[in-house]
Structures are given as C-alpha cells and as structure tokens.
Amino acid sequence: MSTYPRGQTGPEMQVRRLLHAAGLRYRVHYPVPGNARRKIDIAFPKNRLAVFIDGCFWHACPQHGITPKSNSDWWSWKLSGNTTRDADTNQRLTAAGWSVMRFWEHEAPWDVAAQVEDAIRGHSTPTGESKQAPGDR
After folding, report:
1. What is the phi/psi pair of residue 120, to 5°?
2. Span 10-136: which CATH code?
3. Which of 5, 97, 122, 133 has its Cβ near the most Cβ atoms within 10 Å?
4. Which residues, 6+ apart, have CB-to-CB distance to 37 below 8 Å?
5. Which of 110, 106, 112 is nearest to 130 (CA)?
6. Is residue 101 a contact partner of residue 126, using CB atoms and an 8 Å limit?
7. Where are the domains of the chain?
8. Which residues contact 4 (CB under 8 A, 6 or more apart)?
9. What one-character-per-residue DSSP string does 5-42 give?
C-alpha cells in the first residue's frame, strides 16, 4: 500500500479542473486543523469549506465498495478504520467551524463541482455531506 498513489486521483483532478475553470481558487491537500497528518482534498480556507472525493474501495462505498476475499478479516478492519477516521475528521472540521462536503469518486465531476460552486458562491449552504455519513455505512 505504500506504493499506492495518494491524492491526485482522476475524479479529484476532474473536479479541480472544473472548479478552477469556474474561477474558484482553492488549496490542495490542506492540513486538517488540529491534525496535520490528515489532509483535506480540496480546501477553501477563507470560506472554511472542506471537500473530499472519496474512493469507493478505500472508503467503503455502499454502492461499489467490496471487501476482498483474500485476508478478509484484515480488510474489514482496515476499511472500517477508514470510515471511522472519516467520521472523526468530519467532527474535527465541524468543531473548528468548517463545513464538510464529501462525494464518492463515482459521482459526476460536473455535479460535484456545481454543488461546491453553489456552496462557495452562497447559492446554498453546505449540508455537510453528499453521501451517507461515515458512521451510517
């Protein structure tokens, strides 16, 4: 897993390109306040908006996530830990006054970018998440 690429995924890059084309400027892999080891995929510090593009496998998407058959106990533990960490990250950001928007990698990039743009431009208030809360998976 140490060779598995972090960030810069195809879906994340597509959303970033669309946001940039819309004139929005953001920070990439911005540290989570209070836990610099965790990073926000796309951050708007001035607006205190954190956007995450979660991979279906690594974040246990209810629609596309799978648990490998080989070493399934370890993978269950690993994927459960990821969703627990997601919930903790959401809580930390919310406690620090940030809004959190989470999207699955299978969601259409233009839909994701439109929701983020609406939240930034004040057309809507981020409700927190586009997908199920990590604790509800």
Report:
1. -70, -45
2. 3.40.960.10
3. 133
4. 31
5. 112
6. yes
7. 10-136
8. none
9. --S--HHHHHHHHHHHHTT---EEEEEETTEEEEEEEE
Name the residue with tokens 């892999």. Answer: 29
pLDDT band for position 2 (cuts 50, 70, 90): low
Q: How large a percentage of the chain has pLDDT more than 70?
A: 84
Q: What share of the chain is helix, strand, coil (3-state, %, to 5)?
A: 40, 20, 40
Which residue type occupies 133? A
Retrieve residue 93's tokens. 């950001």
Residue 6 pLDDT class (50, 70, 90 cuts): low
Distance separating alpha carbons of residues 76 and 6, to the nearest angstrom: 20
